[in-house]
Amino acid sequence: MIATLEVALGLPWPETVDRSAPIRLGDLPVDRCGMVVGDAVALDAWRGINDESADGLADVFYWGLYEDDAYARFGGERTAQYGVDGPHGWLDLPLAEAAARETELTAWCDRLHGKGLMVAVEGHTDYHRFRRAGWHHPLRVGAIEVGGCQVLGIEWDQGDHSTRHRGERDAGQVYPVTIEADEAGGTVMRWTIPPYDSADEDW
Questions:
Q1: Helix (H) or strand (E) holding 112
Q2: DSSP 8-state class, residue 195
Q3: Of 3-7, 10-14, 67-71, 174-178, which gets the smallest average pLDDT?
Q4: Euclidean distance between CA atoms 118 and 110, whole angstroms
Q5: How far apart are CA 152 and CA 146, in angstroms?
Q6: Residue 50, pLDDT score
Q7: pLDDT at 15
Q8: Cα–Cα distance, 57 to 55 (Å, whole number)
Q9: CB under 8 Å to 69, separation ≥6 — which residues?
Q10: How far, in Å, CA of 29 to CA of 117, rounded?
Q11: 0.85 cut: is pTM over it?
Q12: Three-class SS of residue 176?
């Protein structure tokens, strides 16, 4: 559970502004779809889930009941992620090759099994790139460059969303975002979420 997200802005704290009083910018909801924090220029250039690949490449993943059979036939490396073995697949394929792999896997499964194998092609949108950047982080946090700016992405675990937070702005799950001075005199942005307490759950 994230209690505080802190991002150094690379700027000195203004000498004329009180260091002891955080400046509130607003609030952000806890969202099961993830969170992106970045400069407006970067967010304006952001390529979301349904946008085209930024570099003409894609990743292909497959999993399910017949994953082992598919691996014996087609190969593909495990996409290792923090604490788990991710699905088999291939990274950084040209889009046409990725589509061909998907077609081949799906046709093989349909011919032999009918169902039992899921295949996904993930184009290199910024959304996918930030998720991939967080694969090896325990909090699923990753930073990428978009529009010449660093953007921080957080991928929420679905269980964290549905079980602990009860869901987004409509449920009142919003928390303050502030600009504050750090101990070295720099400026940081903080997003603070109250610590999770299982005793608060109402089952």
A1: helix 95-112
A2: P
A3: 3-7
A4: 11
A5: 10
A6: 84
A7: 87
A8: 5
A9: 112
A10: 35
A11: no
A12: strand
* Angle, helices 67-74/95-112, rounded to nearest 10 degrees: 120
DSSP 8-state assignment for residue 26: E
Strand ranges across the sheet with 77-81: 77-81, 84-94, 57-63, 118-123
How many CB atoms neighbour CB 173 within 10 A?
A: 18
Cα separation, 142 vs 198, whole angstroms = 27
Q: Where is average pLDDT lowest: 14-18, 52-56, 83-87, 104-108?
A: 83-87
Measured CA angle at 121 (ends 80, 40), to 5 deg: 85
DSSP state of 185: S
Neighbours of 120 (CB within 10 A): 13
Buried b (16+ CB within 10 A) or exposed e, 137-150: eeebbbebebeeee
* Angle ∠(191,154,168) on CA atoms, nearest 5: 65
What does the mean pLDDT of the chain come to? 84
End-to-end CA distance of the chain: 20
Q: If you search the block for the tokens 């979301």, which residue do you land on?
A: 48
Q: How far apart are CA 128 and CA 124, in angstroms?
A: 6
Domain boundaries, the chain: 4-49+130-197, 57-124
Report whether 99 contacts 121 (CB < 8 A).
yes
pLDDT at 161 over 50: no
| Model confidence at 32: pLDDT above 70 | no
